[in-house]
Input
Amino acid sequence: MDALPLGVFVRCPRDHEDFKTSLQAVERFGVHTIHLGAPRSQLGRSMAGRWRKMLTDRGIRVTAVFCGFDGNNYQTRQTARETVGLSPAATRAQRLAETLEMADFAHALGCDVIGMHLGSLPAEMQSLDYQNVAAALRCASDHCAQLGQSIHLETGAESAPMLLEFLRHVGQANIAVNFDPANFILYGTGDPMVALDLLATHVRSVHCKDACRIRVPGQPWHEDCALGSGDVGIERFVRELLRIGYRGPLTIERECSADWETDVAKSIQLLDRLLA
Ligand code: MG
Output
């Protein structure tokens, strides 16, 4: 694989037609790697064989399948803390079971990485809740290891030192980091460049996403902005990735846009320029 191939985050397909439409957009962008949101339903996940062939025919490689769950609510930081990932105790067992199914889906798709927003970690390492989140993640990582897969944890919901401490605590060789610089700005969990330096040896995939610290009135906190127009400092981000020896895909993630395709196309031009 080329060093630093460009890619795009493709949202969880609603159905087969939706997946086909997304792949057509990826082809228009001229990129050959994607992160793919895992379908929520078993029916959706049963499409893996058919979708794998479509991907192969188009020369597109899924470099990570991202697990998401019904009930994840990113409307406010508070709802995100309460609802996202494996962190909430009430839904943990059910979501762990779904995570294993999503790993199986990724495997059937020929993908050796699943990514996830773990959710907000409990503050106290000694707490039962912290231990239970770690145990759930170990269970998922054991399942993934049997399939030859790694799990990449999305950054930003907690500070880099907290995530680092958690990674050491869990202590599984196949757990790494998907570094999303914009999330540190959105969640207010630290300077993304300092975080990158701290997590450097764990970073195995990245999201090229931007965000502004200053919100305009009425703007939801989770809303990102077009790559290069926010406070991440994309030029420096790419430079720092090269400095720490990262050579994996640069996957563009644009979450909230009225003109997703134009924004992604411009992001590709920007990254091409920075890499030239
Ligand atoms: Mg992300």
Q: What stands out?
A: The pocket of magnesium ion is lined by residues 154, 180, 207, 209, 253 (CB under 6 Å).
